[in-house]
From TrEMBL:
<dbReference type="InterPro" id="IPR003439">
    <property type="entry name" value="ABC_transporter-like_ATP-bd"/>
</dbReference>
<keyword id="KW-0547">Nucleotide-binding</keyword>
<keyword id="KW-0067">ATP-binding</keyword>
<dbReference type="GO" id="GO:0016887">
    <property type="term" value="F:ATP hydrolysis activity"/>
</dbReference>
<dbReference type="InterPro" id="IPR017871">
    <property type="entry name" value="ABC_transporter-like_CS"/>
</dbReference>
<dbReference type="InterPro" id="IPR027417">
    <property type="entry name" value="P-loop_NTPase"/>
</dbReference>
<dbReference type="InterPro" id="IPR050166">
    <property type="entry name" value="ABC_transporter_ATP-bind"/>
</dbReference>
<feature type="domain" description="ABC transporter">
    <location>
        <begin position="4"/>
        <end position="227"/>
    </location>
</feature>
<protein>
    <submittedName>
        <fullName>ABC transporter ATP-binding protein</fullName>
    </submittedName>
</protein>
<keyword id="KW-0813">Transport</keyword>
<dbReference type="Pfam" id="PF00005">
    <property type="entry name" value="ABC_tran"/>
</dbReference>
<dbReference type="InterPro" id="IPR003593">
    <property type="entry name" value="AAA+_ATPase"/>
</dbReference>
<dbReference type="GO" id="GO:0005524">
    <property type="term" value="F:ATP binding"/>
</dbReference>
Length: 242
């Protein structure tokens, strides 16, 4: 897979009152092949829209989105696990049987690795929030995505469960070559997970901060300087007139 390049990308929506809003406006950025890229930015700055364009769920109105060839095998994970309540954990993680082509062997390995082996026959309402999100991660990973898109996947979890899932995701990223694009509002999570941290501002990329610390990264470390860099970019934006 090549780097993903976006040039002057715009996406407009028309509101019920007829007003046109630009979720993305002339957005140009690149995502390095094989990187763990994190996207931060204030509410409404276009993060989810960007992810939906990357996922192919929407098309840009203007500009180009170039994968350097064909679209890579893509997995998407949202803030909620989106498991089907009438299916067991096992059947949920193998839902791709219905046409998406995952690997049952891999699903079995991941269920073990993510501590869900004894819950194969459980139903979603018998799982904690963290377990349900793990099941969603297993479902996505067992399709062996080359591009993994994650929209605030751990936002609804408590501090400790979130850290555990961050650990598991980093371990998986080290094991399996893929590009991850991960949206979060949590700067601690951004600087812990991200190699490239893109700061979005009003539909564009407002700046980029990099963290070359090797994985796995400990939960507490001197990442304050990185957080300060991100906050500076966000602060500068506050000064920009509307
Ligand atoms: N389907 C839609 N119809 C109309 N407007 C939309 C639609 N989707 C997004 N928008 C608007 O586009 C802008 C960007 O939305 P988007 O969801 O991409 O932002 P975000 O940065 O992900 O926000 P948050 O952090 O709150 O999830 C917002 O002003 C939003 O109201």
């Amino acid at each position: 897979m090549s780097d993903i390049r976006m040039e002057d990308l715009s996406r407009f929506y028309t509101l019920p009152d007829g007003k046109r809003v630009a979720a993305l406006k002339g957005c140009s950025l690149s995502i390095r092949d094989g990187s763990f890229t994190v996207i931060v930015g204030k509410s409404g700055c276009g993060k989810t829209t960007l992810l939906r364009l990357l996922a192919g769920l929407e098309r840009p109105d203007e500009g180009t989105l170039d994968f350097g060839g064909s679209r890579p095998r893509t997995g998407v994970m949202f803030q909620t696990p989106r498991l089907l309540p009438w299916l067991t954990v096992e059947d949920n993680v193998c839902i791709w049987r219905h046409g998406m082509g995952g690997s049952a062997e891999l699903a079995g390995q991941y269920l073990k690795a993510f501590g869900l082996d004894s819950f194969r026959k459980a139903y979603p309402d018998q799982l904690s929030g963290g377990m349900a999100q793990r099941a969603a991660l297993v479902r996505t990973l067992s399709c062996q995505p080359r591009l993994l898109l994650m929209d605030e996947p751990f936002a609804a979890l408590d501090y400790f469960t979130r850290e555990k899932l961050q650990d598991e995701l980093m371990a998986q990223y080290v094991r399996q070559p893929m590009t991850i694009v991960f949206i979060t509002h949590d700067l601690d999570e951004a600087v812990r997970l991200g190699q490239d941290i893109l700061v979005m501002h009003k539909g564009c990329c407002g700046g980029r901060v990099t963290n070359e610390e090797p994985y796995p990264r400990p939960s507490v470390a001197g990442r304050m300087a990185l957080k300060t860099d991100i906050l500076h970019i966000l602060e500068e934006e506050k000064e920009t007139p509307l």
